Amino acid sequence: MVANRGEIALRVFRTAARLGIRTVAIHTDLDATAPHVRAADDAVRVGSYLDVDEVVAAAVRAGADAVHPGYGFLSERAAFASALEAAGVTLVGPSPAVMEQMGRKDLAREIATAAGVPVVPSYALDDDPESFAYPVLVKAAAGGGGKGMRVVRSAAELPEARAAAAREAASAFGDDTLLVEKYVERGRHLEVQVMGDSHGNVVHLFERDCSTQRRHQKVLEEAPGPTVDAGLRHRMTAAAVALGKQVGYVGAGTVEFLLDADTGEFYFLEMNTRLQVEHPVTEAITGGFDLVEEQLRVAAGEQVSLSQGELGIVGHAIEARVYAEDAFGGFLPQAGRADLVRWPSGPGIRVDHALESGQVVSTSYDPMLGKVIAHGPDRESARLALLRALEDTAVTGLTTNTGFLRALVASDEFRDATIDTAWLDRHELAPPSADEARLLAAWASAYAASPAAGATGGRATHPFQADGWRLAGPPAPVVVELDRPVSVEHARLGVPGTVDGVPVTAVAADELRPGHEVVLEVVLEVVLEVDGRRRSGVVDLRAHTVEVVLEGQRHVFTRPDVTADAGPAAGDGTVVAPMPGTVLDVRVAEGQEVAAGELLGAMEAMKMEFALTAPYDGVVTAVDAVAGRQVALGARLFEVTGTDQA
C-alpha cells in the first residue's frame, strides 16, 4: 500500500507493477477519482492522509504486507512507523528508532556532532536574542519541504517569526518544536543520496544540487552538483555514508549539507528518512538505478544490489517542479479546474505527474502538480532539453509556474551555476511579454470562427456561425474583443495539419481586434513564427476569455461583455483573500488605527502562510475575517480607510 497520493503514489505503483506486486491506494473523498486511485489494484477510503490510526487500519484491512510512505504526510513520522510495526506491517523505510533520531533536525544534529560531521552553528531557544549574530534561521525541528522556516534579521523580528514558524510547523507536521541556527547568506544546498540495508551495507549514489530555491522551497534540482569537485564530493559522500552506518540506516535516505560559498566549508543540515521529490535526477545519472525497486528489495530483507565500486555518474540531469502558483503574481497558490493539460515527451525527458485534463486542483494539498526531468550527456545539453520540455508544457484553466521555470532555466545565472540558496529571494525575473500571446489569442479567435476551422479540428460549420456571412453583401469582419490590440511584424501563424498553415504576414493591429461572438470551448495548437523563430502555443477559447499558453506561461485575455454593467469597483483599501484558503489569525478590530504594511491578519493555503497587511495608513472600517473560517478567492477580509480620506 502507498500511504500517499498524486505523482509519488503513481511513481511507486509503476515500479510495483513491473515487479508483479499487487498495489493498494488510499484516498480521501476529495481524491475518490484521482489518477493514483485508478492506477492501483485496490483502493481504501480514509478520512485524512495524516491520521496514523486510520491509515494503519487501512493497510491491515487491505491485507498489505508493506506500506510505502512516499514523501510528505506521514513519511517521517516515527509514530506511524511504530504503529505499522505493531500491526505486523513492514514500512518501506528505516526503523522507528532511526526515523526518530534522523528524521528530526534537533536529534540528527547531535548524532552528526558525535560522528564528527560539521553542523551549522545554533542557538538555544531560551538564549538571549540580543546575543544572536543575525541573520538567523528559525526552522521546524520536524518535517521538511521548507515549511516552518523564517529568516530573522533582528531581535525585534524574532517573536513574530517564532510564532509564525511554530504555527506552520504544527499545521504541516503536527509538531511545533523549533531550532535557531546561523543563516548563511550565500550558500549552496547539496545533498547525498544513500541506500542502506539490514546487513550493515550503506552506499551513496552521489550528490544533488538543490540551490535554486525560493523561501527554502526547492525549484530546480540537478545531479551531479555543477560546482562540486572530486575532493568535495569525496568528503561529503564519505560523511553521508559514515552517518548512515553509525545509525544503522536501512532504506533510501538523503543527507543534506549547506556549502558556505564564502568560506568553502560545508555543514550537515538534516537527514530526510524517505525518498526525495528529486530522486529522478539520481536515477538518471546512475544509469536508471530504480530507487523504489531498491527500497522494496531492501525492505524485504535483501542486500543493496550494487557495491559502491559498481556505481558511477552517467551524464547530467535537471528536474523542474511544476506548481499551481502564479510565480509572476507574488507566488500565490492557484486552484481550479485544469481544462487542458499537456506534458512534454521525447528522448531524455521524463515526467512524473498526476495531473490530467479536466482535473480539479484543490488548495487542500501541496501545490506541486508534477516534475519535468531532462537527462543529457552533459549539463548544457540537459539544460537545453529541459528548456524545450518546459516550452512544450501547457496547462489552461489555472496558472502554473511553468513560464517562470522556463525563464529561470534560460537565465545566464542558472546556465553558469551561480545561483545560491537565496538568489531567488534577492532577484525577480521579469514576466514574459504578452504581445505575442495576444496575437495568438486574436488570430485563433478569428480563425476558430471561420469556415476553415471545421476542416482542421476546430468547430463544425453551421448556418449560425460567427463567420461574418450576410445576405447580398461581402462578409463582415470577424471581430475578437481583447483588452488591447497588438501588432507584430514579420509574423506567420498556422494550425498544424493545414496545407500551408494559415499564414498571416505583417499583421496590422486593426485586423486583430476583438468580438464577443465566438466559439465556446475550442482548443487550438498554433505555430507562431516571428523573425524566423518558431514556437508552439496552445489557445483555449471560451465564452468570455481566451487563454494562451506560450513558452509555458499562461496568459488570460478577457472579452468584455458589452451588454453587462461592470458594477462598482472595490476601493484600494479593501484587503481580499488572494487565494482560497483558511483564515489563521485576525490582529485588528474595527476602529483601530493602522500604519501602511501593518499586519492585519494571516491566512493559509496549500500549507503555506500569507500575511495580510494594511495598504496604507488609516483606520480599519470593516473586519470580515474570522479565524478558522475558510474563504473564497477574492472574499473581502478587511477594509481600511486612508487617513486622508477619513
What topology does this entry show?
Blueprint lengths: L5 H13 L5 E4 L7 H5 L2 E4 L6 H11 L3 E2 L10 H9 L3 E2 L4 H8 L1 H10 L7 E2 L12 E5 L8 E4 L5 H16 L4 E5 L4 E10 L5 E13 L2 E7 L6 H18 L3 E10 L5 E7 L6 H7 L5 H9 L16 E8 L1 E2 L5 E2 L2 E3 L1 E3 L6 E5 L5 E3 L6 E9 L2 H13 L2 E3 L5 H9 L1 H4 L7 H4 L8 H14 L42 E4 L27 E9 L2 E9 L3 E6 L2 E6 L15 E3 L4 E6 L6 E2 L4 E7 L2 E6 L4 E6 L6 E2 L4 E7 L4
Helix pairs in contact: 4-5, 5-6, 11-12
General description of the model:
- By secondary structure, the protein is of the alpha+beta class.
- The chain contains 15 helices and 35 strands.
- The strands form ten sheets. An eight-stranded antiparallel β-sheet has the order 13-12-9-10-11-14-21-19, with helices on both faces.
- α4 (78-86) packs antiparallel against α5.
- The chain is globular and about 70 Å long.
In short:
With 646 residues, this protein is α+β, with helices and mostly antiparallel strands.
Overall average pLDDT: 85
- Rounded radius of gyration (Å): 27 Å
**How would the global form be characterised?**
globular
Spans where pLDDT lies below 50 across 5 or more residues:
451-491, 497-520, 560-571
Q: What share of residues are in beta strands?
A: 25-35%
Q: How are the strands of the largest sheet arranged?
A: 13-12-9-10-11-14-21-19
Number of strands: 35
Q: In terms of structural class, how would the helical and strand content be classed?
A: alpha+beta
Q: Could you describe the largest sheet, including whether it forms a barrel?
A: 8 strands, antiparallel
Distance between the termini: 61 Å
